[in-house]
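ugh ok fine here u go
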Amino acid sequence: MKRILIPAVAGLALAAGVGFAAADEVIVTPEQQTVVKEYVHKHPIASVNVLGLELGVGSTVPDTVELQQVPDVRYRYAVVNDHTVLIDPGTRRVVQVIE
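structure:
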């Protein structure tokens, strides 16, 4: 009985962890992407250089990076190391790199 119960509990814990990971996934709608791209194009800002920062989705920008608001969008943007990024202001994590 123990041999069956332990793997079952471990499998359940693993499945629960996968559920939490999926809940953290950020989805930026196509409409939001369009709004952000147009706003960023019309309101250019200077790039901030952050040494040693590997910039990508999920990376965290330091407090020294000023986040700019985009009207009607929950996320903020900044230009870091010459890349425009969309950032969750609550966690300061990059949710999208804007091309």
